[in-house]
Amino acid sequence: MARPKARELTERELEVMHVFWDRGESTAVDVREALAGEGRDLAYTTVATLVRILLDKGFLTQTGDERPFKFTPARTYEEVSRSLLGDLVQKVFGGSRARLLMQLFEEEKLTPAERKGLKALLETTKGEKDP
Hints:
Largest sheet: 2 strands, antiparallel
CATH class of the largest domain: Mainly Alpha
CATH superfamily of the largest domain: Winged helix-like DNA-binding domain superfamily/Winged helix DNA-binding domain
CATH topology of the largest domain: Arc Repressor Mutant, subunit A
CATH architecture of the largest domain: Orthogonal Bundle
Helix content: 55-70%
Structural class: mainly alpha
Number of strands: 2
């Protein structure tokens, strides 16, 4: 029996998606060059395979029938990041957003500006969703 298709993004697939979110419509060659510019020198066939997988998973759409094929994100960064964060909160923090935030605040690598920003965000959203 065949394994069901994974709906989650792998680390490499996410790297490719970041290129599409940053650049918009692109070819596999464009993505490969962008990744190489960031120090990730992957073979063209690897990038083309990742693009095909992302197309099959519904994260990309093909924008034309002419070669070289161009693709564009089918899902926004916000949609995907919200989904991944929700999965993380469920899997790691038992569904508790408060536990996630406490972990962030306890993280010693946060800069004073990051701490201040998180506190300000909590203050501005305080009560927005409270009954």
